[in-house]
């Protein structure tokens, strides 16, 4: 059962240990007077719309919805998790390029109080 096998990859970056220490430090002890955000993206999200309205939960029956849907193409979700508060900021964009990533960073920058430092934790995907 391959779906029950956990895999991992060890970095061959010579500065891996130093970078790991920095990232773990941001999670465990976020700096005062700064915001620590963990950013990621999910591309190829199906933009679906149900053909009929959903029915709400009632006593004795869960919510129901039709399995029929209308496709509206795909979208890319960019999201930022505030490590300290757990608050998530997200935006969807039609494309998945560095231009959209920069737009998302501007959204975050506009939401942060002026003068407050922002620490961003990212993976190494090419759009960054």
Order of helices and strands: HEEEHE
Specify the number of helices: 2
Weakly predicted, low-confidence segments = none
What is the tally of beta strands? 4
Distance between the termini: 35 Å
Q: What does the radius of gyration come to?
A: 20 Å
The average pLDDT score comes to: 89
What proportion of the residues form beta strands (DSSP E)? 25-35%
Helix content: 10-25%
Q: Which of globular, elongated, flat, extended, rod-shaped describes the shape?
A: extended
- Give the count of structural domains: 1
The biggest sheet amounts to: 4 strands, mixed
Q: Within the largest sheet, what's the order of strands? A: 3-2-1-4
| Structural class by helix and strand composition | alpha+beta
Please describe the topology of this protein.
Elements: H1 16-28, E1 34-50, E2 69-82, E3 88-93, H2 98-111, E4 117-121
Parallel strand pairs: 1-4
Antiparallel strand pairs: 1-2, 2-3
Structure notes:
With 128 residues, the protein is an alpha+beta fold. Helix content is 21%, strand content 33%. The longest helix has 14 residues, at 98-111. It starts with 15 loop residues before the first helix and ends in a 7-residue tail after the last strand.
């Amino acid at each position: 059962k391959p779906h029950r096998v956990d895999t991992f990859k060890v970095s061959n970056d010579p500065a891996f240990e130093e970078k790991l220490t920095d990232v773990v430090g941001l999670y465990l002890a976020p700096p005062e007077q700064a915001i620590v955000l963990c950013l990621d993206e999910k591309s190829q999200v199906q933009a679906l719309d149900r053909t009929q309205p959903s029915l709400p939960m009632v006593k004795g029956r869960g919510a129901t919805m039709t399995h029929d849907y209308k496709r509206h193409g795909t979208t890319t979700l960019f999201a930022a998790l505030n490590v300290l508060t757990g608050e998530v900021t997200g935006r969807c964009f039609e494309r998945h390029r560095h231009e959209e990533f920069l737009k998302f960073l501007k959204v975050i920058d506009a939401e942060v109080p002026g003068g407050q430092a922002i620490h961003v934790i990212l993976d190494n995907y090419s759009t960054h």
